[in-house]
Amino acid sequence: MNLQGKVAVVTGSNSGIGLGVATELAKAGASVAINSFTDREEDHALAAKLAAEHGVKAVYIAADMSKGEECRTLVAKTAGAFGRCDILVNNAGIQHVEGIETFPSATWDRIIAINLSSAFHTTAAALPLMRAQGWGRIVNIASAHGLTASAFKSAYVSAKHGVVGFTKVTALETAGQGITANAICPGYVLTPLVEAQIPDQMKAHNMGREEVIKKVMLARQPSGDFATVEEIGGTTVFLCSDYAAQITGTSISVDGGWTAL
Ligand code: NAD
After folding, report:
1. Which one of 97, 191, 216 would you pick to mutate in the ligand 1 pocket, going by the greatest count of ligand atoms within 8 A of its CB?
2. Are 14 and 35 in contact (CB under 8 A)?
3. Which entry of 4, 18, 88, 195 is 20 to 30 Å from 215 by CA?
4. What pTM, to 2 d.p., does this model score?
C-alpha cells in the first residue's frame, strides 16, 4: 500500500491516534502535515522526526479545530506547503463525562465544534482541491460511540454519530469522482486521553490498574484488549490505498467486537 507522492493532513496529530495515523501514512510514503493548536517547539520537532525517520516531507501547522476559519486555513496551508492535498484525516477530538442536566453548555458547544464541525470545515476546504486532482481520500476518526451510546457522554456520542452521518453525505456528494469518504470507529485505544482516565477509575472502583482496565474500561470490548494507534493508522492507510477505491460512505469498526454485542 504505497502512498508515495500523496500529501496528507491529519487534524489533532501531535499525540495519540492522530500521531499514530500520521506515522503510518508517513511509513507508507505520504508527506504529512501534523496539527494541534499548541504551536510548541516540540510540535515542530515531531514533524522533523517523522520526516527524518520515514524519508518523507513533514510539517507542523498550528490551527485550532474549534474555530471554523482555522480549520479551513489548515487545509489551505497544507496545500501551500506541498502543492496539493490528497488525504484528509479528521481526528481532533475531546471528551467530557457528565450527566445531561449539569453538562456545561460551553463544553457541549466545544465538543460539537472540535469533534464534528471541524470535519465539515476541513472537508469543505479540501473538496475543491481533491475534485481538481480527480483523487482524494477523507477518513474521519469517529468512535464506537458513533454507532452506540454510553450514559454521561451526550455531547461526544452526538458528535460522533454526526461524524458518521456527515461521512455518508460526503461520500454521496463525491461518488464517482475518485474521492472516497469513510469513518473509522475505534473502541478503546490506549492513548494519553485514555491513560489519564485510569487513576480516576482505579479510585472510583477501588481496583488495581489491570483489574480496572479489564473489568471496567474494557467491559464492552469482548477481545479484552485495547486497539492500538498503529491499527487505526494501518486501517487509515488501507482506506487511502487503491484497494479501497470502491469503499465509500461506510464506517469500519476497530473495536475488538464492541459493536457486535
Ligand atoms: P488525544 O488526547 O491523545 O489526542 C487528541 C488530539 O486532538 C491531540 O493531538 C490534541 O492536540 C488534538 N486537539 C484537541 N483539541 C484540539 C483543537 N482545539 N485544535 C486542534 N487539535 C486539537 O486523544 P486520542 O485518544 O488520540 O483521540 C483522537 C481521536 O480519536 C478523537 O477524535 C477521539 O474521539 C477518537 N477516539 C479515541 C478513542 C480512544 O479510546 N482513545 C476511541 C475512539 C475514538
Report:
1. 191
2. yes
3. 18
4. 0.98
Among 3.30.420.40, 3.40.50.150, 3.60.160.10, 3.40.50.720, what is the CATH number of 7-189+227-260?
3.40.50.720
Q: How far is CA 15 from CA 103, 116, 133, 190, in A?
A: 26, 19, 30, 11
Say if ligand 1 is within 6 A of residue 190 CB: no
Q: What Å distances lie between residue 116 and 73, 134, 161, 228, CA to CA?
A: 17, 26, 9, 23
Ligand 1: does its nearest atom lie under 6 Å from the Cβ of 23? no
Span from the CA of 46 to the centroid of ligand 1 (angstroms): 17
Lookup: cell for 149? 451510546
Annotated catalytic residue 156? yes
Q: Which of 60, 156, 188, 243 is catalytic?
A: 156
Domain map (residue ranges) of the chain: 7-189+227-260, 190-226
Q: Are the beta carbons of 188 and 150 closer than 8 angstroms?
A: no
Residue of minimum CA distance from atom 34 in ligand 1: 93
| Ligand 1 pocket check for 64: Cβ under 6 Å | yes
C-alpha 82 – ligand 1 centre gap (Å): 25
Residue type, 165: G
Per-position pLDDT tens, the chain of length 261: 899 999 999 999 999 999 999 999 999 999 999 999 999 999 999 999 999 999 999 999 999 999 999 999 999 999 999 999 999 999 999 999 899 999 999 999 999 999 999 999 999 999 999 999 999 999 999 999 999 999 999 999 999 999 999 999 999 999 999 999 999 999 999 998 899 889 988 998 999 999 999 999 999 999 999 999 999 999 999 999 999 999 999 999 999 999 999
